[in-house]
Amino acid sequence: TPDDAGNRKMSAIDGATMVGAGGDTSDRDVIYDEETQRSSDRRRMIGSGDRNERIRTYNLPQNRLTDHRLNRNFPLAQILAGDMDDLLEALRDFDRHRRLAALAANEG
Asked: Which residue(s) pair with 59 in the sheet?
């Protein structure tokens, strides 16, 4: 029938097999599922940029840098002048505690 011929032609054009009554999955469906999964993975890795995902906030009017992981504030002028010793020490402590907690969780 002309309709079947058109379906075969479309199938040849887009490289997909037609989904029949048996529920066969077309190449297009597989590609769509892979792209959907890849997009979901990418969104999960990148995040949404929401406020609760932020690591650090630079507040110039209040001369404050807030590191949300540490839940601490640091003087922004001091950081911008290159004196980051307090910040770096706090980040090292945070990382050390995080790694020790992960080791303890894996051992237990």
From this structure: 64
